[in-house]
Design brief:
By secondary structure, this protein is an alpha/beta fold. It has a single domain, classed as Rossmann fold (3-Layer(aba) Sandwich), CATH 3.40.50.720. The chain has helices at about 10-35, 80-90, 105-110, 130-140, 170-195, 220-240, 270-280, 295-305; strands spanning about 45, 50-55, 70-75, 95-100, 120-125, 150-155, 200-210, 245-250, 255, 265-270, 290. The strands form 2 sheets. The protein has a 9-stranded mixed sheet with strand order 1-2-11-8-7-6-3-4-5, sandwiched between helices. The protein has a two-stranded parallel sheet with strand order 9-10. A hairpin with a 2-residue loop joins strand 1 (about 45) and strand 2 (about 50-55). Helix 4 runs parallel beside helix 5 and helix 5 (about 170-195) packs parallel to helix 6. The longest helix is centred in the N-terminal third of the chain and has 27 residues, at about 10-35. The two termini are about 45 Å apart. The model is unreliable at about 1-10, about 35-50 and about 55-60 (pLDDT under 50).
Length: about 300
């Protein structure tokens, strides 16, 4: 503690003032060095049990393009998590594109969304798990002058419970990694350039907590693949700290299922879809990880304007 040697306004007061200014300058220098190397980790504001890492300021939504002017590519859109995102985006008036290797799953998706939204749903049969397949799917998607403004990647959320590692083959591990990690990379490599230089665009990864710990016996390869997907999302945020588009990750630390199959510890894919659609529409934050550990967390993040 500093002790004044003079009266009010005397030498002691001046000495205290100088020390305070020096401390403020040191804090600013440390913050600048921190932001230079770790821009996405500047703040970690906590909202309830939902944690935001990487947000540097309060939300400031951009509202220059209407949803009807935007085309969102949902990678994995024919799956459980992706279908909820697709429906919620269509409900908000977005045009939505979905690529799948399985035409039957695309037909099932078309029967799931409201008939009135079908003119806004664009489906392509293709394989984004390889670079060549992703390039071909991109060429098909962009026919007719379509322009993708946003991408949501929900490819890394498949389930696997094949048993302990010593009972598995290298081929099985390769298969899991292709599903959870490699397809996330190949699709990002092909589709990220479509949105990265657009300040009104976005690229959003949907991940889960399986990569942080073993969920249950026999799910070890799931943990390996999911951990790779989490690491890849971190690498992208840190390697591209200044891209104009909004680059975010929504991490759902719960099971996700359809409404009719809900169980304790699970959340409806429609609730996840509403949250992701809100994030895409608002474009309030960038280089941020939005964690949700419960359905209440998603509602809190939405009510606070983060989603």
């Amino acid at each position: 503690m500093w002790r004044a040697r003079g009266g009010a306004g005397g030498p002691g007061t001046l000495e205290i003032g100088r020390e305070r200014r020096r401390r403020r300058r040191r804090r600013r220098r440390r913050r600048k060095r921190h932001l230079r190397y770790f821009p996405h980790l500047a703040l970690s504001p906590r909202v309830g049990s939902a944690v935001l890492s990487g947000s540097l300021s309060s939300p400031s939504p951009l509202r220059t393009m209407s949803p009807s002017e935007r085309l969102v590519l949902v990678l994995g859109g024919a799956g459980t998590v992706g279908s909820g995102i697709v429906k919620s985006l269509l409900d908000r008036g977005f045009h939505v594109a979905v690529i799948s290797r399985d035409g039957a799953r695309l037909e099932k998706l078309r029967s799931f969304v409201p008939a009135s939204a079908l003119p806004h749903l664009h489906t392509v049969v293709g394989d984004v798990g390889t670079e060549d397949g992703a390039e071909q799917a991109k060429a098909e998607l962009l026919k007719g002058g379509r322009k993708v403004t946003d991408v949501v990647s929900s490819l890394g959320l498949s389930w696997w419970q094949g048993g302990p590692p010593h009972m598995q083959t290298l081929q099985e591990l390769q298969k899991v990694l292709e599903t959870l990690l490699l397809s996330t990379f190949t699709s990002w490599k092909v589709f990220f350039p479509l949105v990265k230089d657009n300040p009104e665009g976005s690229y959003t990864f949907i991940t889960g907590g399986a990569g942080e710990h073993l969920l249950m016996p026999g799910t070890g390869f799931l943990t390996l693949g999911a951990a790779g997907a989490l690491a890849f999302c971190q690498v992208v945020r840190e390697e591209y700290p200044k891209v104009p588009c909004k680059l975010n990750e929504v991490k759902i630390n719960m099971g996700v299922s359809t409404s009719e199959r809900l169980a304790p510890g699970f959340i409806s894919h429609l609730e996840v879809g509403k949250a992701v659609a809100s994030l895409v529409e608002k474009r309030s934050v960038s280089h941020t990880v939005l964690n949700a550990n419960s359905p209440a967390d998603l509602q809190t993040l939405i009510s606070q304007g983060w989603l």
